[in-house]
Amino acid sequence: MTQRPATLGALRASGYRPRSVKEELRENLLARLRSGEPLFPGIVGYEDTVVPALANAVLARHNFILLGLRGQAKSRILRQLVELLDPEIPVLAGSEVNDDPFAPVSRYGRSLVEEQGDDAPVAWVGRDRRYVEKLATPDVTVADLIGDVDPIRAARGGHLLSDELTIHFGLLPRANRGIFALNELPDLSGKVQVGLFNILQEGDIQIKGYPVRLPLDVMLVFSANPEDYTARGKIITPLKDRIGAEVLTHYPRTAEEGMEITRQEAWVLRDGAPAEIPPFIAEVVERVAFLAREDKRVDRRSGVSQRLPISVLETVVSNAERRSLTVNEGRVVPRVADVYAAVPAITGKMELEYEGELQGSQSIARDLIAAASREVFDRLWSVDALDEVVEYFEGGGVLQISDGASAEACWQGLTAVPGLEEALGGAGMLCGDLALDVAAAELVLEGLAAHRRISRADTGTYGRARPERPKGKGPGAGGFGLGNDFFA
Q1: Distance (Å, rounded) from C-alpha 228 to C-alpha 14?
Q2: What is this structure's pTM?
Q3: Sheet arrangement for strand 245-248
Q4: Residue 150 has pLDDT above 70, yes or no
């Protein structure tokens, strides 16, 4: 392994060529594009929308802002920019602002080079230490971001307060020759946003009115919620004008993309063995989020985070895991009853409109699960082809599918329903695996209940369809944007 230069003279002799951080990002991005490597590994659904816009911003050497609702991978994208930096760069040893050995910007760095010349010590900084992130809150000050004069440092060093050596640097100068990310930019107070002007336009900072010029080499990236950005207008216009690119993020556009993200992020590996999640159960979980984003009772301006299906799937697996241990099944195979058990993972992730507040988040969550089950059911079966199953319940048949019952006990009850086993076989869903067959059969019953051909109680009991309540009468009538007035 080649030894890294440890002094300024050795660094100069090595042929090292410094470059700005934006040029470094640009050249490394070009290298990835030429090699065909993924630019943002693990980011799903942005290949034709967000990623090209981000690449253009980096290639143009622009500072940029990501605009999107919560749970759209904004922070994750910003953190992955680190991978476009060099593995490590040389800095003057002891410098708080990662001084370039060839062109130091701080008083400390300049003095070190003047005093020691080619013997000035050089340290190497890895890419992770060149990324600084800050969550913007109303209490963040100019001193936090840029810096302030430190009287104690002045007293100990015998310096005047106007001396540059008395400065305590904020986060931005410490991100020199790296990336500075500011999340939720609109929450930053106006006067602090003003403090960012010179950095964006002139590339320098001023502290406490003293004539100290510190030309920083930094890539500035921001994130914001578009509701904050456009409706409340908390990003001041001059700052907005100085941001080079505005990149819009979005939620997954198809259920398949959402399922891929959820499968990638959700923790389903339990005790070294992954849960056996039927594809239709994973789809029901994902469609809950899609339906919530369109529901009139849910605040669309707040959004429904992709964390919802991730948390729901993890809770679904946990409920199936608990059942597996209780009945000694030895396998973790979720079914629709487990999705209903995950209602607590849904309610906290939805901001409700006035109509939704009247109905309650738990009622809405159950409606969403039923509607999601109906969509998956409609893709596999036709209601009209299940008349025999419906007739069983119309004749007074009742069946309870508890989320705590074993697959064997459930199957005994399900096989008593005429036509149900044949319906599974006709759709290619009867595989001979008891746990999977139970999950598929329960989906059939959920679909029929969602179509109001049979009824379903919160206890998991299926029976004769109840009379339809007229629209406008009672809670939930007509409230669901995709047709939930079919719920009794």
Answers
A1: 50
A2: 0.86
A3: 131-135, 178-183, 218-224, 64-67, 245-248
A4: no
CA 243 to chain centre: 23
Q: What is the CATH number of the domain that holds 144?
A: 3.40.50.300
- Domain range enclosing 106: 8-248
> How confident is the model over 80-128, as pLDDT tens digits?
999 999 999 999 999 999 999 999 988 889 999 999 999 999 999 999 9
Please state, as a whole number, how many other Cβ atoms lie within 10 Å of the Cβ of residue 245. 16
Where does a domain end: 248, 282, 309? 248
Can you tell me whether residue 302 is helix, strand or coil? Answer: coil
Residue-level length of the chain: 488
pLDDT digits (tens, 9 = 90+) for 432-457: 999 999 999 999 999 999 999 999 99
Same structural domain, 371 and 480: yes
216 and 285 share a domain? no
Question: How far apart, in whole angstroms, are the C-alpha atoms of residue 158 and residue 148?
Answer: 17
The answer to whether 235 and 244 have CB atoms below 8 angstroms apart is no
Of 198, 213, 248, the one marking the end of a domain is 248
Please report whether residue 1 resides in a domain: no
In the prediction, which pLDDT does 156 show?
66
Instruction: Tell whether 3 is covered by a domain.
Output: no
Question: Measured at the alpha carbon of residue 376, what is the angle toward residues 373 and 382, in degrees to the nearest 5?
Answer: 105
